[in-house]
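Example 3.2
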Amino acid sequence: MFGKLVAIAGNTLRETVRQPIYAVLMWVMGFWVALTPAVAGFTLGNREGDTKMVQDIGLTTLLLYGLLASVFGAAGAISREIESHTVLTVVSKPVSRPVFLLGKYLGVGGAVSLGYYFLCLVLFLATRHGVLSTASDKPDQPVLLFGALALLISLLAAAFGNFVYGWYFPTALMAWVVPLGTLALVGVLFFSRTWQFQSPTTDFGDMQLIYAVTMTFCGVLILTAFAVTLATRFGQILTLLLCAAVYVLGLLADYYLGRPAAAGEAWFYKLAYAIVPNFQFFWVGDALTQEQIIPAAQVGQVAAYAGLYSLGVLGVGTALFETREVG
């Protein structure tokens, strides 16, 4: 069973990464995050406030990417296969539907994670560069040099591979830019803005931004579970609308469900508050803005909550898929 699960997950990962919309989302979001230091400069705040704005916009972009990428990935991996009846080539073999659905979730989640990691690299580089608040502020030369080299080498390598070996350009570009972007970030951490050697823990040693993107990713995993589950019954557009509704409802759960439940009102509020995913657990942009400390224990609790909730959603998806006619 494990071999079948890995095969389905790997094939789904490759198919999702090769979807044109996947590359479009990743690069559009990446360029937007890279441009946030310039956008945040118009807030007319101090340098620290502008940096917090960069982080806040970046976290919002990461969550939006996770929502869109998971929905389009799940729609391509499940909805279209059901509609075209190609899913019969898998479920007609000795592959149970729960294994099929879990493999699809792991494949889509892996593809989303890869793009999410790339956007995190861009966000860390953008945060390190910061906002040029005054005319006397100088650009962060290590960030610009290492980032530009990673992108340029990736473009050249992907173009060469596409021309000589027939590589699929978007996939080849991602395969190069992710590891080279990682090396670029590592190199930046060892140099100050003026090329002075520094400890690699100088910029992000407090782990706060790392904790923030990790908790946001936990929310993305839940959205991916909903996308996979809903894709067993609905098409791409309806899946997107329902996932967006789940996200909005999760953000409002504390106010509209949590407060009445705490006040001891009707049992319905307590039940709904327990069922609806609380996305306030995953959003810590306000904590970063207000310079509140995010403890590591909280990250662990949020990760456990996201894992258990995702399993519950996939359980519902398995029940829905078991009764879905695919022939």
